[in-house]
Amino acid sequence: MPFHKLGQLCEATKNELLTLTQQNPTFDTKCYSRNEILLQQGQVQRHGFFIHSGKLVSSVVNETGELRHKEFYFAGELCILFAEWIQKSPSFYQISALDDAKIVLVPLAELEQDNLRALKLKLLEQQLLFKEAKEAFLLLNTLEQRYCFLRDERPHWINGLANYDLANYLGVTPQGLSRLKSRVNKAQSTTTKC
What is the superkingdom listed in this entry's lineage (predicted)? Predict the structure, then answer.
């Protein structure tokens, strides 16, 4: 299964990020309320957001005003819009808090320093692997298979995200996701697995 590591950050990299945030008292720590926007669509990203607690989401508001979720970020993860960081371009996405969140602002300029180039390379490598896994996840599986994978392998997504947010990410209406959950649960009661 090429997407088995979808959404998982290497423990060594996670520990390096945690150490980086703890050893740099100049990095600001801020608390954000649910639905508060940390980075507006169209702004230039100057910080990565290391999540101590809470959840973030990157989303885009399309030309019809519809909000579409691109990615979720959980405690212990670093939220960066990589394409915008590499190209130093305005953000195509916005980043907002899905619930109350405590965030360490990691200046992206810090990750350009020579002593952190190895960490930057690890982050870029993991992002490439993640994108490959996500592409396989979305293209090679049915909606039901994607839901079952998240339920079985990423229960914190199912338990920690609102039905609306999960449905938005999967590209289905909340009602469609509820029907899918019912169908899967009914089928599971007669078998043991999706």
Answer: Bacteria
Write 59-62 long-range contacts (CB < 8 A, 24+): 59/93, 59/94, 59/95, 59/96, 60/92, 60/93, 60/94, 61/94
Task: Please determine, looking at this structure, whether the domain spanning 11-130 carries the CATH number 2.40.128.30.
Answer: no
**Contacts of residue 178, Cβ cutoff 8 Å, sequence gap at least 6:** 163
Q: In what order do the strands lie in the sheet with 47-53?
A: 29-32, 101-107, 47-53, 78-79
Contact 137, 3 (CB under 8 A): yes
38-65 confidence digits (pLDDT tens): 999 999 999 999 999 999 999 999 899 9
Domain ranges of the chain: 11-130, 141-194
By the 8 A CB rule, do 49 and 94 touch? no
The rounded Cα 39 to chain-centroid distance in angstroms is: 14
pLDDT bracket for residue 78 (50, 70, 90): very high
Q: Per-residue pLDDT tens for 14-26?
A: 787 778 788 888 8
Distance CA 46, CA 50 (A): 13
Residue 103, Ramachandran bin (φ over 0: left; ψ between -120 and 50: alpha; else beta):
beta
Q: Which amino acid is at 21?
A: T
